[in-house]
Structure formats: structure tokens, C-alpha cells
Amino acid sequence: MRRRLFAVAVLAAVATAAGVVPATAEIAQPAVVTINPVDWTPHVLDGTVRAIVQVGDSIVVGGDFTTVATSDGRFRHRRQNIFAFDAGTGALRRFAPSVDGPVYALAAGPSGTVYAGGAFRTVNGVGQRGLTRLSVSTGGRVTSFRAGINWGDVRALALAGTRLYAGGAFSAVNRVPRAGLARLDAGSGAVDTGFDARLTAVDANRARVEDFALSPDGRRLIVVGAITHAAGVPRDQVVLLDTGGPSAVVANWYTDAYQQDCDPRYDTYLRGVDFAPDASYFVVVSTGNMTGATRMCDTAARFQVAGAGRHPATWVNHTGGNTLFAVAITGTAVYVGGHQQWLDNPHGNKSAGPGAVSRPGIGAIDPRTGRALAWNPTRSRGVGVRAFLATGSGLWVGSDTDQLGHEYHARIGMFPLP
Length: 418
Known about the structure:
Blueprint: H1 2-17, E1 20-21, E2 43-44, E3 48-55, E4 58-64, E5 67-69, E6 76-78, E7 82-86, E8 103-109, E9 113-118, E10 122-123, E11 126-127, E12 131-135, E13 153-160, E14 163-169, E15 172-173, E16 176-177, E17 181-185, E18 199-200, E19 208-214, E20 220-226, E21 229-230, E22 233-234, E23 238-242, E24 249-250, E25 253-254, E26 270-275, E27 281-286, E28 299-304, E29 309-310, E30 315-318, E31 324-329, E32 334-338, E33 342-343, E34 357-358, E35 362-365, E36 387-390, E37 394-398, E38 403-404, E39 407-408, E40 412-416
Parallel strand pairs: 25-29
Antiparallel strand pairs: 1-13, 2-5, 3-4, 4-7, 5-6, 8-9, 9-12, 10-11, 13-14, 14-17, 15-16, 18-21, 19-20, 20-23, 21-22, 23-24, 26-27, 27-28, 28-30, 31-32, 32-35, 33-34, 36-37, 37-40, 38-39
Keywords: Signal
InterPro entries: Delta_60_rpt, Quinoprotein_ADH-like_sf
Organism: Phytohabitans aurantiacus
């Protein structure tokens, strides 16, 4: 146990020294988590959990929901789109801000605060569209943080020192033009005027960031979404940005893996991305509603970061026609979630093809081989897993259903490390 916690603590110390708070799952874990969820987590009784982050000894949860119950089901509490609980016991916190729309993204802030992004327009009765910073102890707005988007929503957040990255569907922040991606001052919310990736899409005014992942050292940002160009350079749905300096620099890295169309209704079929803890590779997950071993629809795919120019996928794992929404990399495993029925299924067509393995709703992939690991807790599929968070204790999972690991866990649960 000490060795496991030491490994996590070392990585956390390095990240802290660099001024970086990992945005998703850039936490190294020396083992695959168990298939038996802990029994003490609360239950979200409606809607969908879409974001999870740890702030100190609290887990903060965002999504579109209205009611949360204690782990034993005895007490119900109104919690509108965001709530918090003790990371070790599941006891609900008094944290209950009034947010009038869904929360899609969270990032841990300094001094016991949390940044929240989503499709809301007001926070605690005050107009603040799409972005806010909250005290986890009181639920109050941090009034010095004044950021707001012009329309749409915020779907991804990441903090690196004094810089906050925000991505989503918007075209301006604080009335400063920014197409789907902005870097802000983490204290005031002011837009970093020197940082502009100039994302464009087929509809030039509708570039959209579905997800991004910040490398643990804060120097690279991998962005996926409805993107055709960044800073005038062609980039099909995926762009790697160098973020260590004052401006957004499009890296000499690209892939043509996603040039092939999936369902024509999608302006992007990429849904999630995460960096490995050592930042040497990342994994992208997708939807697409089309099958075939040569297509990238409904897949998880690993890409190496090193090197310049064109990068093919190192490996691709196919579901056989079912969407993956979320991905978390811990070094020992690439966890994927959605409403998939199988992994290792390149020849399936909403069916189990040769070699397919059953992994309903959640699964894990060997980061070296790209093949499914034996880990198979199962979950009721619904629309799918929308959020992962890897910590020193285990893997948190947020979704829209109430069965996880063959047990009742409404919309949130945690698989501990062995």
C-alpha cells in the first residue's frame, strides 16, 4: 500500500512543482483497479453525471441532475447539477450552489475552490454564462473570477499554474473572440490575449471542442472536436498544441486517421481524449455509427507524441459499432466507457465478430498491445459512461445508469485499487 501511494504521491509532487493540476486521469496507478465498487458512495437519482474532480478531501460531481441520495438511500437532497461529498466516506457536503444548467466540466482550483463549465447562465442567481469558480466549503462564487462565454457551453477545463484552459462550443469569452478554445487568467478570468489557436471548422464560426487533455507538465494540449484547421494549418478533428510559451503553437504533429468519414450527420465523431501519465502518448475515443476494420468509427486509438509530421495510430480497438465517450489512462490500463457491448471487435456490426470480448458499458485496454484486459466489471449500458477520474484510491466512474459491477450504484461509483 505504501509503495502504491508513494508512486502516486511522487507524480502528484512533480505536477504540483510544475504548477499543474491534472485535468482528467494523469495519475499513475501501479495496478488495474478491482471489479468490486466500494459500497459507500452516494447515489445520483436522475440525469447524468458528466464530470468528476477531487478537491482536497472532497469529490465534486457535475452533470444534469436534481436529486442525490446518501449511500444507504435513507436521505435525499436537492442538488442542482453540482454537488460534493467526502472522498473517503461518501458523506455529502453542504456544498450546494444554484446552477441553472448542466455542468459538463470541472477543474480543481487553488485554496479549496473548483472551476465549473457547462451550459448554465446563472450561478447563485448572478449572471455568469458557462464558466464559474466556486468555494467547495461554502458553495459561494469566487467573485474575482469574472469569465463568461457568449453562447453555447464549456465542455473541458484544465488548470496549469495561473492559466485556465476552457474548451467547448462558443465563439467569444468576455467578448474577446475565441473559437471553441481559450486560455484565461485563473484568478480574474481575463482572456489571455496572446493565446489563440484560431480553430476553424467546415462552418467557420462553429468550431467546437469536444474534449481536450493537458499533459502533466502543462506544456502540451491535445484537442479533439469539430476542427478542420488550427492557425490556418489543416488539422482533421485532432490538433496538438505547444502551450509552454505565451502563444498557442500548432505542433508539427498530425494524423490523417480521422479523414475518413463516419456517419455524415457528425461534424466530428471524436468524443474523448486523455494523455498518459508520462505524456508519451494519448488515446482518443469515438462514435460514428459505422463499422469496419479499416474505419476509425466507434474506436479507441493510441497515438505517440514523439516525432514530427504524420502519425498513424499505434493501435486501434474497435467496439463493432457502439460509441465510446470517455477514456482515462493510468499507465497500467486505458479505461474506456460508453454504451459499447464489446471490445476487440473490428469485424462486428452491432454484433460480436470473430475474437470479440464482452465488455458491456466499461472496459480496460492494455496500453502496449491495444487488446482488452481481463477486467470486466460490467455496467448497465444506457447512453454511456461520461466521466472518469483516476486518483490514488481508485477509479471514479460517472454515467446515466444505476448498475455498476453487478451492484446498485446510481450514476456514480468507485473501483478501488487492490
